[in-house]
Amino acid sequence: MTLARTRSVALTGVDGHVVEVEAHIASGLPAFFLVGLPDTALAEARSRVRAAVDNSGQSWPQRKVTVALSPATLPKAGSHFDVAIAVAILAAAQALPEAAAESFVFLGELGLDGRVKPVRGTLPSVLAASLAGWRRFVVPEHNVAEALLVEDVEVFGVRSLRQVVALLRDEEIPDEPSCAAPAAGSGTDEGSSLGSAARLAGLDLADVLGQASARRAVEIAAAGGHHLFLSGPPGAGKTMLAERLPGLLPDLTPSAALEVTAIHSIAGLLPADAPLIVRPPFCDPHHSASLPAIIGGGPRMARPGAVSLAHHGVLFLDEVPEFKPSVLEALRQPLEHGEVVIARSAGTARLPARFQLVMAANPCPCGLSYGKGIHCTCSPPVRMRYQQRLSGPIRDRIDLMQLVEPVSRAELRADRHLVESTAVVAERVRLARERQAARLAGTPWSLNAHVPGHELRRRWPPDPEAVPILERQLAIGQLSARGADRVLRVAWTIADLAGRSRPSRHDVFAALTMRLGHDPIETQRRVS
Description:
Elements: E1 3-12, E2 15-26, E3 31-35, H1 40-43, H2 45-55, E4 64-70, H3 82-92, H4 98-102, E5 105-106, E6 109-110, E7 116-117, H5 122-131, E8 136-140, H6 144-147, E9 154-158, H7 161-168, H8 193-200, H9 212-224, E10 228-231, H10 238-244, H11 254-267, E11 282-283, H12 291-295, E12 296-297, E13 303-304, H13 306-309, E14 314-317, H14 325-329, H15 332-337, E15 339-344, E16 347-352, E17 356-361, H16 380-387, H17 392-395, E18 400-403, H18 409-415, H19 422-439, H20 453-459, H21 467-475, H22 481-498, H23 505-516, H24 520-527
Parallel strand pairs: 3-4, 5-8, 8-9, 10-17, 10-18, 11-14, 14-17
Antiparallel strand pairs: 1-2, 2-4, 6-7, 12-13, 15-16
Helix pairs in contact: 2-3, 9-19, 9-22, 19-22, 20-22, 22-23
């Protein structure tokens, strides 16, 4: 037999496609051809595979070897095809049983000495192949726990090509030294949301003293999944509040946990000892991060960016006016649709990005506009230009605008007896989310922040007495139509936290105040 085939998986974003790996050995001068739109890492498999086969005690066929990856029109990227290519060639050379080679899906990168090294994207690869009907998988030993997250599959973890050969020949598996586990996040430039989450573990909302209204805004944001903007001078507690928001969120549902884990697997951010992510991720990129690092992308195939790494979690942009305008404007699509669509020459990738956005900013470059007893040193034009770095369309997509003012020593002392811990507030958030889930059962949404405005007005209208408040703000131009929908969503969250069946006039007014960042009635009186 000079023709054999096996299978692996190609990833496009988080979507996997089963790839048939065919090997043909023909008469002619010794040569190795790899076809099927491979990228550079995959094209280099010719050298890795040949060295691994030679160093594993197997004979390399001294003839013309052609390996085809099908479908040929689908771009393939990565080194995880190595094991499948080696198995197909050995099966074509009759060194391995053809039936055994065809019954598995193979994932793994080969070292020159025949070691099978861990690869990224094992979970989405196994999940895609299982949905296509495949049940038996050979993966690197360090990726076994990740692959076993998929139900009804049989996974074999291997350390070397020698073990793969013994498995397919149904021989005793030889003992091989284990490869060193890669460090979580190695080889990435997006920043690890898992590392951030570990750093935030144990932070308590009770540490933020003197900021009762800001803590309330964080609680409402957590309960309804609302976007939050924190503005105030340095040292007032904006970053502390944002870092304590993930602690208020409940654990991920099983389906959400698999989605988040798949994204982090592709990014190479999964630790070997904890393959399943059960807590909402927290991603806080630096303001100097590039557009691909935030939104996702790459030179050939799209890779997850910070917005996807924060899927079902929190994306925190500190000092948001310092981010590049192109980066901030690119947030419009994921904020509206919950996904990022990235077009490249090799194809289009869709990456999930249903995150909760928290932004923090100083009021001006010097940061002292709201300081008590300290005068701002910035001129009005400088202050205006600084605030306009965050465009109106982005501001209009934010549900809660919260001013975080500096506090005095007396306020700090007084608040010690009133502040609540993260555990107490998280319990209220959990109950509010249960009320939302019960109300939205049978719909595509689970949080108030995700319900479209027209559905909210038609199926869950607020108290009729609350409607004139919104209409008045729409009439004077203080609120857009999108802003009115967001006010209603926040009002529903406030009602859920209070245990009310629907938002009252007071709830809508409170949501409107938090949306505008000021008391609308008091502001109208001053203007009049």
